[in-house]
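From the shared-data thread, chain only:
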Amino acid sequence: MNKFLIALMLGVFSVSANAMLIDRGGGFIYDTDQNITWTQDANLNGLGIWSTQMSWVAGLSLFDSVRNVTWSDWRLPTTSQPDASCGTQTDPGGGFPLQGSGYGCTGSEMGHLFNVDGINSTTAGPFTNVAANFYWSSTAYAPSNIIEQRKWAQHFGQSTGFQAANTTHLGNQAHAWAVRDGDVGPVPIPAAVWLFGSALGLLGWIRRKKA
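Structure, as tokens:
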């Protein structure tokens, strides 16, 4: 019976460890696949133009009540190019590589969150306040000229989620989702204790069934 309990506990912890998105507590979600940590609240600052959102995230400090530390190294997500996973491939000329946009993009951090993890405004998973709107990336659309500045953005509507290079010189607004590199820390002890208690409770139930 002890061997069964050990196997059960290892199985529970294995499921938690292999999850792509892990709730670390304190308002932070760790993405094990990308090795980045998202804020659980996807709409901390509302709508804003790109420059305003960049300034906001650069000065953002969030207190982690679980680990008793303040995190201040936040940024906006990045959009890597070229991205062959995107449904639309555009040759901008001028010596720039193909630019991936449209549906199905998985090479960018937000595209991965939307298309691989399945996070959107309707199916938010462990997140809250995911808006059915565009979210700014920190990455500029490289082929854009000085007059027409464009930045990459990802739409998080369930049926309209796509990646696009939005113009910034017209005052277009989008949301900002803060992210940081790495993990804030392991699963909090209270959560581990809860898992252990659940395993013990299941073991007790099995014993009662056999009796």
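Residues 2-210 form one domain.
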